[in-house]
Design a protein that fits this description.
This protein is α/β, with parallel strands linked by helices and 394 residues long. Helices cover 34% and strands 21% of the residues. The strands form four sheets. A six-stranded mixed sheet has the order 4-3-2-1-13-14, covered by helices on one side. Strands 5-6-7-10-12-11 form a six-stranded mixed sheet, with no helix packed on it.
Length: 394
Amino acid sequence: MVSFLHSADWQIGKPYARVVEPDKRARLRQVRLEAIETVGAVARDAGAAFLLVAGDLFDSPTPSASDISAVCFAMGRLALPVLVIPGNHDHGAPGALWHSPFFQSERERRAPQLQVLLARQPLVLEQAVVLPCPLLRRQDTEDPTAWLQELNWGTVPTDRPRIVLAHGSVHGFGPVDLEADEENPAAANNRLQLPSHLMAEIDYVALGDWHGLKRVNERIWYPGSPEQDRFPRSSDYRSGQVLRVEVERGNVPRVEPITTGRLGWHQLHVHFNGDDDLGRFEQQLASLLGDRVGQDLLLLEVEGQLSLQGQHQFDLILEQLEARLLRLKRRGHPQISADDNEVSEMTQRPGDPLIARVAAQLQQRLEAPQGEGDPAVARLALAELHRLVQEGSR
């Protein structure tokens, strides 16, 4: 029996280009580096013999020198062997980081127990046999596990478990099926074939590429990223963990997910039937985020309608959210529907004839037959005019 950790998709150096503020981007990048120390603590507590990283340790095949140094330093503090294969983001083609003199010198100096497996051949360890399937280019049309079907299994030791280490998607499951969205486009290649006759020779398959936890079957697992990096697309999506695996030759492995993630990635759908729902919305936010600042990201989906005053209150809530969240991603917006008192306040202003005239014209556009003008633009303009009037009256 051997106990080890299975992880993948650390993507150190991920730019988080859709996060506007540089300080928040830097925080997100730093948290991914800090996850290495967290994984090390899990390894010590679990008594792991080694750590497998199934691809995409870095977000790019040419990461910055500072990221390389930081990773090697953090890896060197783990105090256990670390076996890594290149993935599609940090592939092993000539010119990639793994071949650079700088990486090699930093690895030797700071993390000598780190091994990057670039050859598709068995690695016999004292506790297990590791069968690496590195990606040697970003999009590989050939199956990186194909060499296993040509392997003479009679030459592989039978007294210790056999572990495949690979990065890609398996038939019926992978990025094309579940992972792709507007921020994370799908890849058509890097498909892995693991037929039943091959699995009869293998005790565990440690996969990377899918950033959420997924059990393909009792012997094939994706651990997900140790620090979540995208909004969940389904209720059962789970990220921010590593897998502790116990396995021996010929038996079904025991797999235990252990939480490592620190940041909260949330999704909230809100429907406003009127201004009274703003209080309920604030209660939902309090339940979801508590008093935390700088530790959460939120995908907010909004529909329904608010009055002009309600829209103003909603904007203030969003302003506070933008300040405390690492990212606020919005989809949709409430329709603005001025009540009778608000219309009168805007259009009957003897002291402000210009504002009254503009408000009346905007209201006429809203009341015009369908197809004449753009009511959404008129609603936004009326809301902005109302905001200016409110601020001017203070």
